[in-house]
Task: inverse folding
């Protein structure tokens, strides 16, 4: 069975994988032909359901099931989420820059299946190159009759609009993204109503991640069963992982889940630079609770195995920290991110993230107090009562609880170091 | 009689470049509901004014038919709409977790030293604004920097110093990621593929419909 679905073309043809010519002579748009000519819209949705693909944006919700929720009122919209902003992730960027036609074909097939005639790609403002590449691909595809009016004589019309974000992490949350796309502040909405019922302009809307949609041509071409047969049953298909931090071979890796973290870090990632020891890693982006070598090296890399060990794969960002890492400084940097990106709607998040940042900063500046550990945990508990995983919510969206993950991680795994730094001991590294 | 869109654009932003007026009209025509044009129009107005100035915000409000306060409330939410003046080159140093682990703070320090200004400030001659930013999605090539939102990956403090000196000495009209990467970059998040001829002409993301520049265009 195929090892790589999403990155095969860009690996084989690095010089021109983003062009229509290369896309067409490597099998591109054949899946769209098949979908338009040989499949009913219901069949396409059934194949996506059968693929068992779980959304790649972080929540892991099965894409086909999500599609099944779309209310059948017109107009309906498809919005592709390329607001990839979780610290540690850069795989959607690669898919947008290096194989934009794969994304466009996925959008066309999904739009046909869902009854959509206007789709949007929301790309974060810091990815102008990705936006240019997708825009150029839209122009090429429209010129060649794969987008636009009466696509390939099928009677199906589709416009695709690229919309550039403005530098706000929260817009990766789907309802915040919809508000942003409507020309408003990127503040998440209360759910329900869910976007599938009331989304963009209060119309039925499917929001899918770039990686999820990029898999659609392969699923349409090869069938959902073939996709479901790849990898562990509940982590079907391939997943792109972005590996960064203290690692010899950082980068994006399209893997079949099921290997161990030991294999991922030491074989795929080439291990830790300069022969240093591994101290901790974040298995799924800044929001995820950390893993440590004493407990998790032999844990399996799959959505469910990571979840049952108290964390998440999320959007696939693996951030590796070596023995020299000051874990309080790392936690501060993570919490600072959430404090900066809090939209400000919900008090526990707006106030709590800023207080966590301030207390960690105070500790790092050498003014820590013994009671700061309890203070950090108390603030965290006010944001996410019980400090469990998955987190309890006091807020509209999960951003606030995400800021708690670094706190529970350092208090759970590195309490002696935290206490020593508060006490002003020389254990502080880096 | 209802004013046509092109007349309205000429009346409100007739002083904009022809390209920017054309792009504004296309954007106003793109969305099922016109308010969606706020962000793209803010970018175009920023191209005209170098940032989302009060004039820029008023123009966008008039183009869409909402109040300046409504546009202001959107602009103030997003870090990329600059409400204070910025230099010709906006140097954004990522200091989020992945870059932090790869010593991004040293890169920021080098940039501050080479420009003589602290993060958040602009050089006296108005040429360079320095800022530190949260994750820019270049973690595999950490530490990373953007100049006018064009990315350079795999920097060191020394290379960052060189980058600033190069900006000051050559004052590139078009900021090209590939050129900067070749001169000052290192480890990349992934193989970027062929070189691009498009880049940024202002401290605004270079994206076709918003106005960007190809070399020699």
Result:
């Amino acid at each position: 069975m195929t090892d790589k679905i999403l990155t095969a073309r860009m690996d084989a043809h690095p010089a021109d994988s983003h062009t229509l010519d290369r896309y067409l002579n490597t099998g591109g748009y054949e899946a769209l032909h098949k979908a338009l000519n040989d499949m009913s819209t219901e069949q396409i949705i059934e194949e996506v359901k059968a693929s068992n693909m779980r959304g790649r944006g972080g929540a892991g919700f099965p894409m086909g099931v999500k599609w099944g929720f779309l209310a059948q009122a017109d107009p309906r919209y498809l919005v592709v989420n390329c607001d990839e902003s979780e610290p540690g992730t850069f795989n959607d960027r690669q898919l947008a820059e290096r194989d934009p036609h794969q994304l466009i074909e996925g959008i066309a097939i999904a739009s046909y299946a869902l009854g959509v005639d206007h789709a949007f790609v929301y790309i974060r403002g810091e990815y102008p190159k990705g936006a240019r590449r997708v825009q150029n691909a839209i122009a090429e595809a429209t010129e060649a009759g794969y987008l636009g009016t009466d696509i390939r004589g099928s009677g199906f019309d589709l416009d695709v609009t690229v919309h550039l974000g403005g530098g706000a992490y929260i817009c990766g949350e789907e309802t915040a993204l919809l508000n942003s796309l409507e020309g408003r502040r990127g503040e998440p909405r209360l759910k329900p109503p869910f976007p599938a019922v009331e989304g963009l302009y209060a119309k039925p809307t499917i929001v899918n991640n770039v990686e999820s949609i990029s898999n659609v041509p392969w699923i349409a071409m090869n069938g959902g069963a073939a996709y479901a047969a790849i990898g562990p049953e509940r982590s079907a298909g391939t997943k792109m992982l972005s590996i960064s931090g203290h690692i010899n071979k950082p980068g994006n890796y399209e893997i079949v889940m099921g290997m161990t973290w030991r294999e991922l870090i030491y074989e795929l990632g080439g291990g830790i630079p300069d022969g240093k020891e591994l101290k901790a890693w974040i298995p799924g982006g800044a929001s995820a609770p950390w893993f440590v070598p004493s407990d998790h090296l032999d844990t399996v890399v799959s959505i469910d195995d990571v979840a049952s060990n108290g964390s998440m794969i999320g959007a696939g960002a693996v951030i590796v920290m070596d023995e020299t890492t000051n874990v309080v400084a790392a936690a501060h940097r993570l919490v600072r991110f959430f404090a900066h990106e809090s939209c400000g709607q919900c008090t526990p998040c707006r106030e709590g993230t800023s207080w966590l940042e301030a207390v960690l900063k105070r500790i790092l500046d050498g003014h820590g107090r013994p009671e700061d550990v309890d203070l950090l945990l108390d603030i965290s508990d006010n944001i996410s009562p019980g400090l469990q995983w998955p987190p309890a919510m006091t807020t509209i969206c999960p951003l606030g609880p995400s800021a708690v993950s670094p706190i529970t991680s350092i208090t759970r795994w590195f309490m002696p170091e935290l206490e020593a730094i508060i006490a002003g001991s020389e254990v502080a590294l880096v | 009689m209802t004013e046509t869109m092109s007349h309205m654009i000429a009346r409100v932003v007739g002083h904009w470049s022809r390209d920017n007026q054309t792009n504004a009209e296309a954007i106003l025509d793109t969305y099922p509901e016109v308010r969606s044009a706020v962000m793209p129009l803010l970018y175009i107005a920023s191209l005209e004014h170098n940032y989302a100035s009060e004039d820029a915000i008023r123009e966008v409000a008039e183009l869409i038919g909402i109040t300046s306060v409504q546009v202001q409330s959107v602009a103030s939410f997003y870090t990329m709409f600059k409400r204070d003046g910025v230099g010709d080159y906006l140097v954004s140093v990522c200091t989020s977790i992945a870059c932090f682990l790869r010593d991004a703070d040293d890169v920021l320090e080098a940039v501050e030293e080479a420009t003589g200004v602290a993060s958040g400030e602009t050089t006296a001659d108005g040429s360079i604004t320095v800022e530190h930013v949260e994750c820019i999605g270049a973690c595999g090539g950490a530490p990373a920097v953007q100049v006018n939102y064009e990315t350079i990956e795999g920097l060191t403090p020394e290379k960052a110093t060189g980058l600033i000196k190069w900006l000051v000495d050559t004052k590139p009209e078009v900021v090209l990621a590939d050129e900067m990467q070749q001169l000052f970059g290192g480890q990349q998040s992934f193989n970027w593929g062929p070189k691009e001829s498009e880049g940024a002409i202002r401290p605004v993301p270079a994206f076709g419909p918003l106005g960007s520049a190809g070399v020699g265009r």
